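so my prof wants the structure for this chain in the tokens format not the other one, which i didnt know existed until like an hour ago. anyway here's the sequence
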Amino acid sequence: MSFNAVLRTSIPGLTPKRGKVRDIYDFGDKLLLVSSDRISAFDYILPTGVPDKGKVLNQTAEFWFETLGVRNHAITTDVDQMPFPEGTDRATFAGRSLLCEKTKVVPIECVVRGYLAGSGWKEYQKSGTVCGIDLPEGLVESSKLAEPIFTPSTKEETGHDQNISFEECADRVGKDVAERLRELSLDIFKRGSEYAAERGIIVADTKFEFGVASDGEIILVDEVLTPDSSRFWPADLYEPGKGQPSFDKQFVRDWLLASGWDRNSDPPELPDDIVLKTRAKYIEAFERLSGRKLKFQSEI
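here's what i got, hopefully its the right format
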């Protein structure tokens, strides 16, 4: 089956900075963040895209920016309000683009964990801690924590971000900034996870990014509470003591692990059924969280 996934975008006369998923265009005093349909796993960008994945990420972030009531960098997602040069194919950008305020990005990934999973679970098994924070004995994989914890990490251009202690975070960005990052992160996580819980979704953990605005205030930037930046679990299937089904690219990870790929060479193309299942999971997460229908969906 031929899918019309958007793997790369282009704007006449502009060269984007391309991340794993986003193409970032510099418009002088503003930035344009474009969420492509690229999908990554095990630190590789896969050759197969997932149609509409970028639209899910962009529209999920748009929903939260509108809902959370937290100052953020979003200006508009309406492509007709964006300063594209003549000759730009605006249709490519519809539903997947965010024009935003430029900020000085704080070089810390602000991770909040409400449940014990991923690298946090691995560390807990070894030392009973997560990022140096002591946790009670006897917790199991996917246990709910008594209170969400702030576990910052470094922002790496390549490879894995590295978990760091709060003290090291403060050493890197200053004590006042670190305390503000923790305060904002825990507050946003609490409000977002309570909202998601009402819609049958557990936010197990997530990561936020912040930037310093022109007036010196620290504001929310990048994406927020999306399936790429968070672990979303269906509440009706939650069962501690094991890994949980999730609204993300778990289908992709599981297929790659079973495919025989050595994870040291170029990754294989994804089969159609894995692409379609992953697409459906992303769209379901958005529609359950927001109560909205995904705009500008591709015809599959």
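also thought this was worth mentioning. The mean pLDDT is 95.
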